[in-house]
């Protein structure tokens, strides 16, 4: 989504229902903000990202039995959970036992990064809602996330026919960065990457009350509900700024991935090949 939407006001329910009923969104009962990263055009003519392979979402903790069946029916047998243990304890949202699906703990941050002091500083940045604050936060994700991102990328390298899903709590920040890395590696343009990121504005709307209820338990947000809503924004312009940050500070996606995950040029070539298909044989 682009335009003047501030992200602070609730969206029209009919509009949300309509958008969520269409690709790239996928409906899995008990899970919010799920979409397929397939069908995006790449810089290579007649080549698109592979549908039915890489999915992003919010947390799976509330998935229902019907949701599990839907997950498995999509061929998803692996879920990468980007949350950390203190975060799951704080929100009483543990890693779920999903029959037939391997849930892989893949935390971006270490437990010590959830000290009250560090958490308060992150919340203060999120509360401003500014692009500058989000770039500080997203730099922290990039600086800490190499091992987690490497785990997901190695799955892509080694298991091209094994669909997977990755998620954090809201499916916005850590999840959005993983999605951006995957899409950028195969030369999806910045507009489509930013558009995908901005779709979280709609994708998380059904869980808006639950997320705000959690945030309002934090002293910073309890006294300022608007600050809590600013934390939830997923503006198109924020992702464009992140992609510039990735280029300017980290040398671009390839340099970042090789430096922070230890993957090689050969690995990246295989990963790219496994993430795309010709349009004539689009899955």
TrEMBL record:
Residues annotated as signal peptide: none
Occurrences of domain Tyrosine specific protein phosphatases (ranges): 150-204
- What are the GO MF terms of this UniProt record? phosphoprotein phosphatase activity
- What PANTHER family does the record point to? TYROSINE SPECIFIC PROTEIN PHOSPHATASES DOMAIN-CONTAINING PROTEIN, TYROSINE-PROTEIN PHOSPHATASE
Q: By what name is this protein known? A: Tyrosine specific protein phosphatases domain-containing protein
Which organism encodes this protein? Rhizopogon vinicolor AM-OR11-026
